[in-house]
Design brief:
The protein is α+β, with helices and mostly antiparallel strands and 140 residues long. It has three helices and nine strands. Strands 1, 2, 3, 4, 6, 7 and 9 form a seven-stranded mixed sheet that branches. The mean pLDDT is 95.
């Protein structure tokens, strides 16, 4: 059947998590864009609603409890260097509980809260697209 994102375009989700005017980013271990700072997210499973997938992926990757989320846009990423193609629905979460953790060290190597005016490098194309999709009040 093949692998989503590699053998055919994959459907993914991304969740921008904001607390105290800072965005939560994790550093990726694996392709696509290994070594890049990224929002949390992943693939949507068959028969799984995208909003549920965004919450599930975020909770698995961070250990946070995710409350209300809102859809802020979509992005398509074709990453030639990694031969991957993803179409992703983007969400925003401000309603979160707990402190983030490094719960999947095989996938993510580091994390931190960053002001939008001082983001780490390199920043993934996926994350740049998600930040561009934020409501203007969040980016100000």
């Amino acid at each position: 059947m093949g692998r989503p994102g590699v053998d055919f375009p994959g459907l993914g989700v991304g969740l921008v998590i904001i607390r105290d005017d800072r965005i939560l980013l994790y550093k990726r271990v694996n392709a696509p864009e290994a070594g890049y700072w990224n929002i949390v997210g992943g693939k949507v499973d068959h028969m799984e609603p995208a909003e549920k997938a965004a919450r599930r992926e975020a909770e698995e990757e961070t250990g946070l409890t995710i409350g209300r989320i809102e859809r802020i846009g979509m992005t398509e990423q074709i990453i030639d260097a990694d031969r991957q193609h993803w179409v992703s629905i983007l969400y925003l979460a401000r309603d979160i509980e707990g402190e983030p953790q490094l719960t999947e060290p095989e996938k993510l190597s580091d994390f931190g809260w960053f002001p939008l005016s001082d983001l780490p490098e390199p920043l993934s194309a996926f994350t740049k697209a998600a930040i561009s999709a934020l409501p203007s009040a969040e980016r100000a």
